[in-house]
């Protein structure tokens, strides 16, 4: 038997059985002297969604313990002193000396809010100081956990709520919660603890990073969302994570939650149901008008915070620990979820399950509680009937759990998490830098014409950010699709080493592409105006990298005729902006023209005095009356829907005043518009 390092006077007691047979159950009850008492609570966490199995299990327990209290739930994984389990049934037996236990079950009524009100009203003395804690489990698919908690709090805003929403291993078909008297697939169960001296401590770990820009929730009703960023939620997931998301929702949605900030706290919302109209229902409410971001798990932060939770709990009396953790954490960390869970067993017996949503309680200075529905978190409930704190723990409790993780799959997943986190932050910092530059330009340039130039720059930067979004979508979708496909193969027992290697190679290739293109974006927005040597072909290709996804999207044929072999000396970032301005204008013209074969042609060559870059498009000749005006300030033929159309005067300023070249435009026939950039050879290394 493993030696325990905690030493404290025990008043309540918890022991845990991984149930297999009736014989094992009888032997366990006898060996552990479990009392058949109303002061004994059994929490049952089972992977089985077979109603008959659950009813038979309850009857087997009642053969030996007819007077105990029981609450139970189906799960997406179970937790015992051995850590994370699958396909098991865990029974946690807690016997109290001075705490009264009462259990209730209520089927879901008109709505989850009123269900919460009626649920707590079933308990006697539901507003007394004696009622210290309620552990409650709801079904995982029908009940709105946030509304349910709000209903409970409307009756009693001081009682601590813990527990979570039932799971069914990502099948999203049916979940159950039950007591010893009844079972339901649409409702709630709970155990109320009456003892004003009961010591109750709650904690949680989140540690998921947000990815990408914030998106406006334009239409929602409580936990059902109809429109985000101009798209249905299903199309929103498909747009940012790939076409496979439509097929894999709702299961994959719990691993890619939407994160919003409420009262200064990041709260995730996981997908529970996909509807035929493209809307999605989430585990809790997402308010219309709020902003959300995608979330992804930071593996190292999750593991480290698990150890920090141990340190926090050490400051409180503990006799039993119950863990209600999100199944997404288990999916992310796999077996290494034990690095987060197992340090807690050195403090007290542990048990619990992996949920579709976790209930967490926090208190303010007035001792009023806020009961919140969380997702992607690990919540911890520690209770004790005495005030004694742990006097001694093993000195190796933290070191033993900071082992080197040698699983290459975890290393790769962690590397991907870090890559996404770092590059996202770099883009955010880059965007903030650009905004600051615009503000500084506004402050320095008071004259009207100078102010217009700043506005033009700001509009151009907005288009550049849109290009960044297009550029990143394809590799991120490739990464997501590869990971999702591997999971499907694994679930189907078809995952081979070759498939796994191909998956990792695709992820690594896409990740390298993300890493490389961030440097191109850095170059584009580089404020350094120093002249640097670069081959024209390299310069053009770096610029085209940013708009290639848009060119591909509109099926534009790109023809390259490079015949310039000199290295030109230019401010690279400024030259990239000029090339992108012209190419983007060409794309806009071709989209409006809607040709069967749209073409952009880029030609480079040398003359005796100059290096030439020509950019052609067959979107139609520039009208003769407009041609002399296109490089003038304030001139545009475009409306807001087709773009800014105000980059050409800036391009002319850059080429002529900062580089010393020229830029002109002319037509070839009725179909072709041609922009010619001429750079003097005195700026070149021959």
Tell me the layout of helices and strands.
Elements: E1 13-18, H1 22-31, E2 40-46, H2 51-64, E3 69-74, E4 78-80, E5 83-85, E6 89-95, E7 100-107, H3 112-121, E8 131-138, H4 145-155, E9 160-165, E10 177-179, E11 183-184, E12 187-194, E13 199-205, E14 208-221, E15 224-228, H5 233-241, H6 244-248, E16 258-262, E17 265-269, E18 271-274, E19 280-282, E20 291-297, H7 299-313, E21 320-326, H8 327-333, H9 338-341, E22 350-355, E23 358-363, E24 369-374, E25 378-384, H10 408-444, H11 448-491, H12 497-524, E26 532-534, H13 536-553, E27 557-562, E28 567-570, H14 572-593, E29 599-606, E30 610-617, H15 648-659, E31 662-668, E32 672-680, E33 684-685
Parallel strand pairs: 2-3, 8-9, 21-22, 27-29
Antiparallel strand pairs: 1-6, 2-6, 3-10, 4-5, 4-22, 7-12, 8-12, 9-23, 10-11, 13-25, 14-15, 14-20, 15-19, 16-17, 16-20, 18-19, 21-25, 23-24, 26-28, 28-33, 29-30, 30-32, 31-32
Helix pairs in contact: 3-4, 10-11, 10-12, 11-12, 11-13, 12-13, 13-14, 14-15
Protein model, in words:
- This protein has 686 residues and is of the alpha+beta class.
- The protein has four domains: 13-205 and 300-384, no CATH class; 208-297, no CATH class; 406-513, no CATH class; 526-686, Heat Shock Protein 90.
- The protein contains 15 helices and 33 strands.
- Strands 17-16-20-14-15-19-18 form a seven-stranded antiparallel β-sheet. The protein has a six-stranded mixed β-sheet with strand order 1-6-2-3-10-11, covered by helices on one side.
- Strand 23 and strand 24 form a beta hairpin.
- Helix 3 packs across helix 4 and helix 10 (408-444) packs parallel to helix 12 (497-524).
- The model is unreliable at 1-9, 399-406, 446-454 and 639-646 (pLDDT under 50).
């Amino acid at each position: 038997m493993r030696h325990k390092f905690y030493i404290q006077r025990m008043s309540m007691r918890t022991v845990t059985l991984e149930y297999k047979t009736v014989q094992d159950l009888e032997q366990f009850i006898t060996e552990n002297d479990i009392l058949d008492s109303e002061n004994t609570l059994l929490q049952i966490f089972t992977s089985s969604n077979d109603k008959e199995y659950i009813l038979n299990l309850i009857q087997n327990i009642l053969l030996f313990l007819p007077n105990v209290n029981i609450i139970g739930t189906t799960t997406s994984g179970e937790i015992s002193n051995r850590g994370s389990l699958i396909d098991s049934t865990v029974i946690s037996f807690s016997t109290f000396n001075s705490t009264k236990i009462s259990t209730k079950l209520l089927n879901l009524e008109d709505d989850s809010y009123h269900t919460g009100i009626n649920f707590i009203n079933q308990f006697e003395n539901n507003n007394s100081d004696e009622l210290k804690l309620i552990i409650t489990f709801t079904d995982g698919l029908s009940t709105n956990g946030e509304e349910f908690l709000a209903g409970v709090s409307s009756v009693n805003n001081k009682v601590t709520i813990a527990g979570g929403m039932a799971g069914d291993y990502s099948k999203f078909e049916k979940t159950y919660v039950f007591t010893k008297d009844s079972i339901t697939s649409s409702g709630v169960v709970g155990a109320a603890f009456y003892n004003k001296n009961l010591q109750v401590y709650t904690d949680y770990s989140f540690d998921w990073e947000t990815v990408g820009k914030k998106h406006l929730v334009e239409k929602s009703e409580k936990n059902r969302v109809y429109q985000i960023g101009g798209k249905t939620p299903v199309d929103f997931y498909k747009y940012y994570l790939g076409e496979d998301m439509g097929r894999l929702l709702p299961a994959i949605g719990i691993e890619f939650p939407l994160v919003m900030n409420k009262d200064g706290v990041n709260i995730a919302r996981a997908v529970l149901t996909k509807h035929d109209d493209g809307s999605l229902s989430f585990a809790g409410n997402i308010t219309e008008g709020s902003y959300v971001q995608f979330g992804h798990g930071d593996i190292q932060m999750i593991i480290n915070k698990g150890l920090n939770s141990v340190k926090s709990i050490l400051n409180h009396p503990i006799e039993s620990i119950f863990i209600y953790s999100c199944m997404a954490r288990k999916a992310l960390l796999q077996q290494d979820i034990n690095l987060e869970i197992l340090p807690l067993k050195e403090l007290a017996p542990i048990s619990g399950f992996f949920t579709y949503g976790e209930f967490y309680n926090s208190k303010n200075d007035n001792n009023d509680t806020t009961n919140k529905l969380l997702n992607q978190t690990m919540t911890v409930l520690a209770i004790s009937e005495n005030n004694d704190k742990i006097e001694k723990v093993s000195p190796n409790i933290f070191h033993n759990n900071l082992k080197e993780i040698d699983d290459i799959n975890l290393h790769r997943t962690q590397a991907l998490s870090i890559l996404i986190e770092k590059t996202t932050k770099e883009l955010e910092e880059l965007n903030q830098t650009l905004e600051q530059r615009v503000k500084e330009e506004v402050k320095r340039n008071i004259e009207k014409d100078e102010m217009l130039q700043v506005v033009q720059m700001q509009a151009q930067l907005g288009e550049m950010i849109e290009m960044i979004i297009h550029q990143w979508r394809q590799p991120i979708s490739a990464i997501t699709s590869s990971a999702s496909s591997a999971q499907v193969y694994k679930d189907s027992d078809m995952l081979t080493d070759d498939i796994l290697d191909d998956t990792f190679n695709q992820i690594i290739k896409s990740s390298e592409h993300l890493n490389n293109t961030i440097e191109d974006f850095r170059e584009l927005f580089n404020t350094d105006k120093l002249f640097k040597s670069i081959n024209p072909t390299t310069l053009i290709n770096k610029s085209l990298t940013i708009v290639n996804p848009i060119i591909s999207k509109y099926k534009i044929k790109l023809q390259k005729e490079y015949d310039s072999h000199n290295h030109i000396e230019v401010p690279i970032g400024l030259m990239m902006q000029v090339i992108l301005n012209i190419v983007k204008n060409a794309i806009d013209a071709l989209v409006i023209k809607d040709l069967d074969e749209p073409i952009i042609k880029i030609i480079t060559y040398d003359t005796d005095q100059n290096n030439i870059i020509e950019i052609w498009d067959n979107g139609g000749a520039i009208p003769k009356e407009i041609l002399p005006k296109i490089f003038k300030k304030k001139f545009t033929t475009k409306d807001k829907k087709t773009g800014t159309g105000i980059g050409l005067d800036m391009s002319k300023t850059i080429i002529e005043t900062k580089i010393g070249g020229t830029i002109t435009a002319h037509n070839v026939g009725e179909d072709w518009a041609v922009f010619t950039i001429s750079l003097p050879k005195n700026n070149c290394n021959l």
